[in-house]
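As a warm-up, study this chain.
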Amino acid sequence: MSRRIEIVEVGPRDGLQNEKALLEVGEKLEFIHRLEAAGARRMETVSFVNAKRVPQMAGAEEISEALPHQGGRSRIGLVLNERGWDRCLAARCDEANIVVCATDGFGIRNQGASVDEQVTAMQRIAARKHAEGGPPITVTISVAFGCPFDGEVSEEQVLRIVRAAAEAKVDELALADTIGVADPWLVRKRVEASRKAAPHLPLRMHFHDTRNTGLANAFASVEAGVSVLDASCGGLGGCPFAPNATGNIGTEDLVYMLQRAGFETGYDLDQLITTADWVSGLLGKAPTSSVARAGVFPARSVA
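Now compare it with the structure written out below.
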């Protein structure tokens, strides 16, 4: 298995947004630089949300200013609405990730907007990008496998947004298991259905490990042909508007699993573990990712 799997690092954004400890801009930049030294080439670095609602995401402009464009690297800004898009443009992010929730229950609590309102905002942003220019756009469908407020999410609820994103001519689509309720068989079905509905749109997957199925779902995605997966160093993460939210799949865990199977990721596992220990220490906690705790196998020889 020599196929390359691209891992989009989301630790500086999704990883930090649910933590009680607030990192300073300099600490966030150090985290980003350490991750890039470990091999991250695409990374969600900032979120253009209201810092009063999500104080963990304060400093987006300062962080972006300190990260000028660099060849071979892409720094991504999270966008929820046109105001966020304007900030993303002004900050000169390399990519924008627009979130559209699959349910009204989650959308209203998380973004203050219904599904229809979010789809309309996404369409307006995409139209502006095509007319005025701007970075590539990913549309992430959050709670694509289940909602903490509305319960089960149907395939049609997801495909409706998939089709709208394809019609808007965005650059990439991501399906997010925001609260960690998916199983590998449902993942395969959603991947197949999304590909059928939007065959020319690259697909990316985003899993949380709330119920210990995150890596299994990543495996199912790879088996279904997906080549782009999100992960968070140290297993950090969670949504502040989702009850009992826990972290994303750990980047170290995903890299370990894929590299053992012969897939290429471009990451240095030892540096990832060191970074997971470092950032977790700043947050006053231990890494939740298994590989950060157990180490690599076979163990490195000591001279």
